[in-house]
Amino acid sequence: MKRGHRYIVFTMAIFSLILIACTKKEVKPDLAFAGEKHLKNIRMLTNGGENAEAYFSFDESQLIYQSKHDSIKCDQIFIMNLDGSDKRMVSTGKGRTTCSYFLPGDQQIIYASTHGVDENCPPPPDFSRGYVWKVYSSYDLYIANADGSDPQPFLPSPGYDAEATVSPRGDKIVFTSQRNGDLDIYTVNIDGSGLKQLTHEIGYDGGAFFSWDGSKIVYRAYHPRTEEELKRYRKLLAEELIEPNNFQLFVMDADGSNKRQITHNDFANFAPFFHPDNKRIIFCSNMGTTESTQRDFNLWMINEDGTGLKQITFFKGFDGFPMFTHDGKKLVFASNRFNKKKGETNVFIADWVE
């Protein structure tokens, strides 16, 4: 072989090795677990801290979510692009916030915050009482511009007001309120008119989402059945606490009629969201866990009549707060999977495979 030919072959070999090395560097880790056949191309959008309840804007170009990370000691509301870029805080940075959502047109947002009562972080729940959630009476709803400016109270009242989501039709807001003394679901027109109480049974009703056609609402609930359960529920509520250990899922028509329970188990079922076919519901549950693994939650799917239960994710940790795009091609959810530190929760987005 001539010297020039040897040089060309050597150069091509070196180039091939460099190309292979670069290609290997670009290979992304598989963020799915065995059995997760409905999820493909999972991407992590946040990386560090506690990030959850990420919901699409109406044009599906952005996500609004709550986050606690670095120097931020209490959950605040953030917006980011679908690739995780351009993260920015849109709440006041004061108090504690939760449950944010875009309003139609994506020029305004709605969320719950305690900053109107106290600019400091309210005390966290006392887990020596067991696994409990705080329902701070200082939570009120606020509507602000999408850049976070000009936050204004929305339907303020004594007691807990939070968990607001918006109908895909753009006409109604649904939320949970303690304005009658108990935790019930209400709907209201976007402009604040036409407030209507939809649930009346003693107990917690919340986490509500509309179906894509706006005709139904899915929600989680705990209704004490015995005198002892009722006494405990009321005692905890007086201390701004609820126990999420036995939430069941319900579906009702958008006017509050035709209520029916669709899960019947002894576990915690929550964060339900309708598939765009308006017939299936994806949700989070610790079904099948034991006392030692009861905080392991996965995503499940069920028909809106309670049939066809199917497990979607298989992670030994937490997967929750799922939301589909309007075409059903993408799913966003929060998870502990592949976190850098124990206890961190991040936002993930995946392609949905039927």
UniProtKB/TrEMBL annotation:
SUPFAM superfamilies named among the record's database cross-references: Tricorn protease N-terminal domain (SSF69304)
InterPro entries membership: 6-blade_b-propeller_TolB-like, WD40
Family of the protein in this entry: Belongs to the TolB family.
Protein name: WD-40-like beta propeller repeat-containing protein
Organism: Caldithrix abyssi DSM 13497
Source lineage: Bacteria, Pseudomonadati, Calditrichota, Calditrichia, Calditrichales
